Structures are given as C-alpha cells and as structure tokens.
Amino acid sequence: PHRQVIAIDGPSGSGKSSTARAVARALGLSYLDTGAMYRAVAVAFLDAGVDPSDVEQVIAATTGADIDISLDPDDRWVRVNGRDVTDEIREPRVAQHVSAVSTVPECRADLVRRQRILMDRDPRGCVAEGRDVTTVIYPDAPVRILLTASPQARLERRGGELGGRVSGEQLRDQVLRRDADDSTLVDFTHAADGVHLLDTTHLSLDEVVLAVVALAKEIS
Ligand code: C5P
C-alpha cells in the first residue's frame, strides 16, 4: 500500500495534538509534533544563555551550533543534545519564549528541512501537526486539514490540560497572545486552497478523530 500523509494545522487549543496522535494510532502511522521541535530549540537556547528575543543571537545560535533534536516516532520522548526534555518543553517559560524563536526565518528554514526528513522517515506514513504543515512543510500531503475552535473553547481545553496549574492570565498568555504572535508568521486562521476546514468548537475529541479518519479514507 502507498504511504499515507496527513497534515493538520491549527491554533493553540484547537485539539490538533490530541487529534493527530489519535488518528496516527487509529491508522498505524507515525506522529510528528512540529511544535515540540520549536519548543525543543527554545529549551536549547535558554540552556545556552541565548536571549530568544534577540534576533541576532538566535540566528548565530541556529547557524553556529548544530543542535541535535530527536523525537520518538511514537511520541514518547523528545531529546535535545542527548538530554530528555519531554516534560520541560511544556513548561510555561518555554511557552513564553517559543514564539520569539519561531519568528526567526533562519530558525524556521532549519526546522522545516528537518521536519520534512522526519515526515518521510516512516514507510507507513505519518500524521504531522503544527502551524504550517499544510502550507509550507508538506503542501503535497494528500490529506490536509485546518482545525479551528472558538477562543472560549480553546481556553477551556488548554486550561483543562494544564489542570488549573496556571492562572487565568497565564492561560490567556499561553493561548491568545501566543496565537496573535504566531499568526504573524503563518496564516493558520484561514484554510488555504485545498485544505479542509474543520471547526471543532462543538465536537468531542472522538468526533473530530472520526471525521479526520473518514476524510483520510475518502481521499486515499
Ligand atoms: O503546537 P505548539 O503550541 O506546541 O507549538 C509551539 C510553538 O511553536 C508555537 O507557538 C509556534 O510559535 C511554533 N510553531 C511554529 N510552526 C509550527 C509549529 C509550531 O511556528 N509548525
């Protein structure tokens, strides 16, 4: 059988990670969280004392040091320069700095190149999710989906995931401020030509997963 490639984009709290993970499991494909790679780079920079908001420093660090990022194809771990950062990349200080890192074109180009290699590594195929998978990383993917949800629904979902560990203000910073910053780099609020728009505001995770699997079966 031919390889199956499913590209999913969406804002923070749209449910793209949970959806992509479940779809990958249902169809026996590998899973790639492209946002985890931006988070991993942010951790590497913070470790090295690079100021993420200083563009010159970020460019020097991107092109100077060869940062080693490895991800488990089954999403159990993320490592940076050999160190396990699976939990650390979810910390608020990383959410706070990751958009600054991701606005630097040199950094994006480097990660896009790595993301294409990772998406091609599994002969079964893959489900990849992020902000620019459908438009930049893999515009040729046969199945391309943009997940959206109302700001209220996205705040509630992310708040639920974080289990009340952050204040309302921190939550809005992590979801709404980050989206505003991120949407200056790539447009993940409107579906590009050929990308299926799926509004998940009133759907459960199971319903979203079923819809994506159905679409994948219909198309391939
Ligand atoms: O998806 P997640 O929220 O983990 O992504 C973390 C950050 O990585 C985003 O806020 C964004 O700045 C960046 N990102 C990106 N392009 C992607 C995926 C993530 O710029 N494809």
From TrEMBL:
GO terms for molecular function: ATP binding; CMP kinase activity; dCMP kinase activity. It comes from Propioniciclava flava. One of its GO terms (biological process) is pyrimidine nucleotide metabolic process. Its EC number is 2.7.4.25. The keyword Endoplasmic reticulum does not apply. GO terms for cellular component: cytoplasm. HAMAP family: Cytidyl_kinase_type1. Belongs to the cytidylate kinase family. Type 1 subfamily. InterPro entries: Cytidylate_kin (IPR003136), Cytidylate_kinase_dom (IPR011994), P-loop_NTPase (IPR027417). The keyword Cytoplasm applies. This is Cytidylate kinase. It catalyses: CMP + ATP = CDP + ADP; dCMP + ATP = dCDP + ADP. Its main location: cytoplasm. Keywords: ATP-binding, Cytoplasm, Kinase, Nucleotide-binding, Transferase. ATP binds at G10, P11, S12, G13, S14, G15, K16, S17, S18.
